[in-house]
Amino acid sequence: MKKLMGLSLAALMLCMPAAAQKTVVTVAAYPAVDDIVKAALQDWQKKNPNVEVKVVGREYADHHTAMTTALATSTGLPDVMTIEYGYLGRFAQSGGLEDLEKPPYSLGDQASKVVSFAMAQGRSASHGQVAMPTDIGPGAMFYRNDVLLKAQVTESELTQSWESFIRGGQKIKKATGAYLVAHARDVKDIVIRTGIPAGQGVYFDEQGKSIIENSPRFKRAFEIAQKIRTEGLDAKINPWSNEWGESLKRGTVTVQMMGAWLGGHLQNWLAPNTSGLWRSTVLPERIATSWGGTFYAIPKKAVNKAIAWDLIKHLTLNSKQQQLAFEKFNAFPALLEAHNGPFFEQPVAFLGGQKARAEWKTTALQIKPTMVFRNDSVAEEIVNAELDLVLNKGKPIDQALKDAHRLVQRRASR
């Protein structure tokens, strides 16, 4: 017995050096990106058997709060950091992320393999290409086809122009009682992203100065949103609330404009019992814009940068992996090569057999690059607050835009 115990101990000690050689790489992510990473590890770890990948998943807001703190304090940093588009400007300007165009990463020609607008979003004028896009959100309009049929409104009435969109909403409200949109703010979010000059962002010019007050797109966005509210065409409910989810299930809101990924959310958890009732089409006036997206970055003080970059390349530049993420998790691929799979031509049963993915691909290729800035999220909050004053208190639009411009400029100059 003692001899056997000695042999077991010896065998255990022989195994210990091999186990100690394993490198642990940490990936910080939020739902469902954490699941995408875990699903991708099976193939990647065949080529990297001595690497253990630890995926730290947190809820969306908790994740970005934790990453903000980690960058500020240089503690608790992962090797691979996941960043959603809404936080990209803030993180990109932090100075705490690696430039993926410099050695040893040397992204170089690989950048041309990814949709150009997403690459531009991951670039900082001061710090270079600090984030690598993995999925994108080409803008789409999802609508309840059963409501349109009842109101005798056509899809083209909703897409031809914002004026015809509103007229269609008036017919829908009169015939069915359903609202056109959940909130007038949804329309504003699209219009302000129309016709942005190259090198500028939604709220700021090349020098980081606010363009809100004198921008025709902001004035038009506020005017259209005000018209929708005046006509009683929005339900005055915020996205992702329980009331919003119920409106999508019951068809009391006709249209929801978001990224193409909304189709998967509707099917899987928002309104799974409404299969066949929804359709997808282009945004009004065929506006091509993006709605969200996911990026990977490497903190400058990460421990395992080389392995982290190899994993990021597998997640973003591997066509098979990008297609699987789309098929399983509705993560629309940023990699151009991944747009050629048969999955794009398959009918979507939830959307009444519509081949919607092909149209989303067309939209994705038409989106123009838009720069991101550190204070984008602050500007968005201020603009939304001023729009609320227009919609709820009757504040004059010109004054609201002037005040928003002044407040954004003040915050940006701090």
Account of the 3D structure:
With 414 residues, this protein is of the alpha/beta class. It has two domains: 172 residues, D-Maltodextrin-Binding Protein, domain 2 (3-Layer(aba) Sandwich), CATH 3.40.190.10; 209 residues, D-Maltodextrin-Binding Protein, domain 2 (3-Layer(aba) Sandwich), CATH 3.40.190. The chain is 48% helix and 14% strand. It is built from 17 helices and ten strands. Strands 1, 2, 3, 6, 7, 8, 9 and 10 form an eight-stranded mixed β-sheet that branches. A two-stranded antiparallel sheet has the order 4-5. β4 and β5 form a beta hairpin. α2 runs antiparallel to α14 and α16 packs antiparallel against α17. The protein is globular and about 70 Å long. The termini are far apart. The N terminus is likely disordered.
SSE topology sketch:
Blueprint: H1 2-20, E1 23-29, H2 33-47, E2 51-57, H3 60-73, E3 80-84, H4 85-92, H5 116-121, E4 123-124, E5 128-129, E6 132-144, H6 145-151, H7 155-159, H8 162-176, E7 179-181, H9 184-191, H10 216-230, H11 242-250, E8 253-259, H12 262-270, E9 278-281, E10 290-297, H13 305-317, H14 319-329, H15 356-366, H16 376-393, H17 397-412
Parallel strand pairs: 1-2, 1-3, 7-8
Antiparallel strand pairs: 3-10, 4-5, 6-8, 6-9, 6-10
Beta-strand residue percentage: 5-15%
Fraction in helix = 40-55%
Oligomer: single chain
The total count of helices amounts to 17
Q: What gap, in angstroms, lies between the N and C termini?
A: 74 Å
CATH level-1 class of the largest domain: Alpha Beta
- Specify the overall morphology: globular
Q: Major beta sheet, specifics?
A: 8 strands, mixed
Count of structural domains = 2
Instruction: Let me know the average pLDDT.
Output: 93
* Helix-and-strand structural type: alpha/beta
By CATH's scheme, which homologous superfamily of the largest domain applies?
Periplasmic binding protein-like II
